[in-house]
Recover the amino acids of this structure.
């Protein structure tokens, strides 16, 4: 299950669409340190990428100042979006890292209630209601069966709002 919906796809690599990759890179001034959820087709170009079989949750994020995460949306190896957000919140709190997430909108979930609403700085609800992810280097034909949002942990809400308001409605949390 993913954000209250059944995952009907066997595909495990849902890559961030190019226009959002550009927004992420603009937000980080072209200097992205870590992508712990990468794969060989990812359009995100971080200094350090982590792809399966290496587990991005098990690696230290402490030395990275800018992090982008498009995590697995279902359960994987007994982890969930909650696990990724929990680690990000801790890293942001202790090391002041700037962290962006691309995740499904699901405000009724534990991760929204216990982490995002309590610790995130901003949220952008995307206007793309059926976001078309990329897979194996090309846009997928079907859009996602959920709305998506960017979640921001950091200290620069004004810049987050400036960059991401082009793509949807931005709110300070």
């Amino acid at each position: 299950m993913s954000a209250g919906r059944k995952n009907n796809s066997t595909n495990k690599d849902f890559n961030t669409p190019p226009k959002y990759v550009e927004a992420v890179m603009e937000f980080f001034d072209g200097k992205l340190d870590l992508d712990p959820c990468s794969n060989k087709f990812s359009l995100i170009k971080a200094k350090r990428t982590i792809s399966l079989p290496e587990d991005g949750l098990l690696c230290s994020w402490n030395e990275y100042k800018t992090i982008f995460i498009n995590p697995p949306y279902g359960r994987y190896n007994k982890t969930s979006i909650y696990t990724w957000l929990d680690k990000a919140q801790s890293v942001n709190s202790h090391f002041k890292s700037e962290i962006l997430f691309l995740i499904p909108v699901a405000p009724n979930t534990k991760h929204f209630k216990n982490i995002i609403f309590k610790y995130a700085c901003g949220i952008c609800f995307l206007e793309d209601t059926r976001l078309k992810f990329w897979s194996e280097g090309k846009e997928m034909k079907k859009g996602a069966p959920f709305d998506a949002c960017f979640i921001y942990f950091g200290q620069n809400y004004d810049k987050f709002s400036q960059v991401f308001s082009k793509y949807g409605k931005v709110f300070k949390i």
Summary: Confidence is low (pLDDT under 50) at residues 1-9.
